[in-house]
Amino acid sequence: MEIRSYPHPKQQMLKIWDIPGVGTDLFLRSTYLADIDVDRYDFFLLITASRFTENDTWLGKEIHKRHKKHFFVRTKIGVDVNNDSEAHPNTCTSEEAVIETIRHATEKQLRENGFDDVPVFLIDNHKNDKFDFEKLKQQLLKDFPELKRSAIIFSLQSTNKEMIKIKVAELRSRIKWRAALSAAGGVVPIPGVATAVDIAIVTSEASFYFEQLGLDRESLQRYAKLHSVDCDRLQSIVSRALGIKAPSLTLEGMKTVVLAIVTSNASIFAGAAIGNTTKMFLPLIGGMIAAPLSFGGTYLALKVTLNKFEATALEVMQFVTDRATRTDEAETSEETTSSKEADDVDESPSKKQSTMWRYCNVM
User: Fold this and answer.
1) Residue 28 sits in which domain range?
2) Does the first or last residue of the chain, that is N or C, have fewer Cβ atoms within 10 Å of its Cβ?
C-alpha cells in the first residue's frame, strides 16, 4: 500500500489522505512517523472495523504528543448489528443495546491504553443517517483548525436542520466581503428597488448558497434516496418557494430567482437602510479598499437571498423529517400488530405443546 491523497472535488483547501496502518512490512513502527510525514496533517481519524490494536493506540499516543486532534472511529456497525441478530435469533436484543455494548467495550479498551478523553464514534458507510455519523461531523467542525473551518463546513452535506444552520452562519460571514467586491460594471438597476445591486456577484454567490443548502437536484435526489421519500415532492417544495420551473437551474435562471427575491423585499432597500448598512461596514473595509456605491445594495441582496434559501432548505428538511417519523410510526405499529397476532396463535393448545416440546429438546 501507499499514501494517497484525495482532494475534495469542490473545496480546494480540503484534502483527505489515506495512510496505511502502522506495523506492516512497508510501514514499520520504528520509521512510521517519518515515513508518513506525521506533522503535515491537521488531524487524524484512526479507523478500524474491529478492535483497535496495540499499533493503533501507539499511533494515537504519538499524535497526542504533537498536540494534534485525533478521533477513534469504529466502522461497519451495521454489519455487527446484523451479525448479532443472526447469531441470536431467539433473543430480543435491540439494536441500541448491541451498539452500546460495542461502544462500552471500545471505550474500555481505549481507557486501558491511556485514552480517557478521546472521542469514539461508531459509524457505517452504508447507513450515513444512523449511528454516530452526525456526531462525527459536528466534532470535526468543532475541532478543525479555525483557518480551514470554512473548507470542512462547505465540504459536508446539509443532512439535518442543525447542519443547515451551521452552513448559513458560515455563508452569512462571507456576505460583507463579497459585497465589498461589487463593481460599477456589474451594477444592474432593479425596478422598484431604490439602490444599486451588483447582480453578477449576487447571482454567483446565490448559486453557491443554493448548492450548499442542498436545494439543487443532485442533493434532493440524495435526500430522497437516503430517507425513502419522493424526490419530486422535494423538488416541488423548492420550485414553489423560489418560483423555479425547471429541476436544474442555470446561471441565468438563478439571476431570475435573485431578482424576484430582491424585488419582493424592495422595502428593505430603502435609502436609510442602505446608508446604515454601508456605515456599519465602512470601518472594516476602509483600510483596504474604498467601498463602492453598490456595496449596501449588494450586501442586502445577498442577505435576503440567503434568508430565503435557508427558509426553503429548512422546509425541505422538515418534510423529510415528518415523512421519516410517519414511516417509523407505521413500522412500529405493524411490528406491534404482528407481535399480537403471534401471541394469539401461541394461545392454541397445539402451539403450546409444540413450544414445550422444542424447549425440552433444547434442554
Assistant:
1) 4-155
2) C
